[in-house]
Amino acid sequence: MKTTHDPNNRPKPGEGLFRWIVEQRKLEEDKPHEWTEEQKAALAELRKENAERGTPVIKLQLPLYRR
Amino acid sequence: MQSEEPQLSSYNFRFTGGDSNTYVFETGSGSSYEITFKPSGYLFDEQDAFRDDVYEFSINLISHKSARLPLTDPLIAPTVVGVFQDFHDNHGLVVIYICDSSDNRQLVRYRKFGIWFHRYRHLGFIKMDVEIDDPRGTIYTSLLMHRQYRYRDEAVLAFLRITDRENPK
């Protein structure tokens, strides 16, 4: 699960803070993602709701060379 | 576009909480997304009154069923806006959006975010964009908040202050 930024190793504004944030996010994304039990349950409910409501088919316009 | 299937205005979503204030939703094609609002008051000075209202906003595609990346889905934008509004309604918030640049598609994301914002500008939010020059590529960042936010002016000035420090030119 993702955590908030580490307050101990963070640069100050003007010392590459935004780059550090981007890099921290990438590090988090590279870790295997694990849904919590609550999130798994929420996604299962949402999947059921999607199925019950129906989902519009998105018609795609293929490029000419693929027709 | 005409379609015989029932029309959806957006996907349903759930707030699942946690340190990053996480929302989840799933698209009709089975792609699962996570939207987070990480508390990020540390970006600003301790004396800034709005500091506790600041969150870093991000949208992450966590999984998708197809081996190919999902194609553009017109229901994702209104879903993200719905999540944003829901979080705003429960927390008076200032949001910092920093485009993911790990795959060099940050400019595409930045433009898409701008298009979404423009489409939903009637909701009363304002956005301020700043580009930070960095040797490893431009970092695109935005500040968002409601027009009526009580510390609006202070937040704008403080955002300029911190991004100026990052971008001294």
Describe this structure in words.
The complex is a heterodimer of chains A (67) and B (169). Chain A has 67 residues and is mainly α. Chain A contains 2 helices and no strands. Chain A has helices at residues 17-30, 37-53. In chain B, strand 2 and strand 3 (32-39) form a beta hairpin. Chain B is built from 3 helices and 7 strands. Chain B has 169 residues and is α+β, with helices and mostly antiparallel strands. Classes of the chains: A mainly alpha (67), B alpha+beta (169).
- Second-tier CATH architecture of chain B: 3-Layer(aba) Sandwich
Strand content of chain A: under 5%
Write down the domain tally of chain B: 1
Helix percent of chain B reads 25-40%
Total separate domains of chain A: 1
Structural class of chain B: alpha+beta
**What is the ordering of alpha helices and beta strands of chain A?**
HH
Topology:
The complex is a heterodimer of chains A (67) and B (169).
Chain A: H1 17-30, H2 37-53
Chain B: E1 13-17, E2 22-26, E3 32-39, E4 54-63, H1 76-90, E5 94-98, H2 106-119, E6 125-132, E7 139-146, H3 152-166
Parallel strand pairs in B: 4-5
Antiparallel strand pairs in B: 1-2, 2-3, 3-4, 5-7, 6-7
Summarize the structure.
Chain A is mostly helical. Helix content of chain A is 46%, strand content 0%. In chain B, 26% of the residues lie in helices and 29% in strands.
Question: Which characteristics define this entry?
Answer:
heterodimer, A: 67 residues, mainly alpha, 46% helix, 0% strand, disordered C terminus, B: 169 residues, alpha+beta, Aminopeptidase, 7-stranded mixed beta sheet, 3 helices, 29% strand, globular, disordered N terminus
